[in-house]
Amino acid sequence: xxxxxIIPCLDVRNRKVTKGIRFQNNVDLGDPVEMAVAYSEGGCxxxxxxxxxxxxxxxxxxxxxxxxxxxxxxxxxxxGGGIRNLQDMYDxxxxxxxxxxxxxxxxxxxxxxxxxxRQFGRQCIVLGMDPVRTDDPRCPSGYEITTRGFRQRTGxxxxxxxxxxxxxxxxxxxxxxxxADGTREGYELVLTRLVAEAVSVPVVASGGAGTPQHLIDxxxxxLADAAIVASMVHMGHYTIQxxxxxxxxxxxxxxxxx
Length: 258
Fold this sequence. Notes:
Helix content: 25-40%
Structural class: alpha/beta
Largest sheet: 8 strands, parallel, barrel
Number of domains: 1
Shape: globular
Oligomer: single chain
């Protein structure tokens, strides 16, 4: 059985890790490179960095930060935010990242997925999804894709978009529940399972983790392959090791470091 991955997410703004609730009321928490080293040494499996203001500010991602992280850690990490074209993908991968995450860009220009997969391999291309619950008849799954940091609704059904993205060449999908983001009340299990059952690539649950039981639930009930954590580790409520110990006790296969 494949081991489940625990992935701390570091949202970066002005070279500081920041965290809010449903993308609002963010507070700064620390230096991204220092936090990356701490999580890496603490036993996490991967890391993900989102430059949350790059797209809004019309600039490319902070490549110097990516290079510093690449020199400082020896685990895989993904980068998203401010990715505008194939050259940006190349630059991020050359700077040390193993994966590039695309979200709004992929919705507006789906060909970036197939072009990126063909150029760098589909294992390097991650689709970030920001779905919200909806009654829109265009979205039979009950979940609609949003873009531009939840500010823009698209009328695109989340499950249909996930399947299309896989057909285009995506190698992994991050399902970030906007409704649950930062609440620490648990992942969106229904949505995560719908995506996991619909696609053949790994699915990463994101948004809402607050306790180890939430991760147990998303792995056992929603069939996620990996889970992103943020507030519960950033705020010091749990360490990566504590989370993995609880997962191990519950029979969830994880990479051990204790």
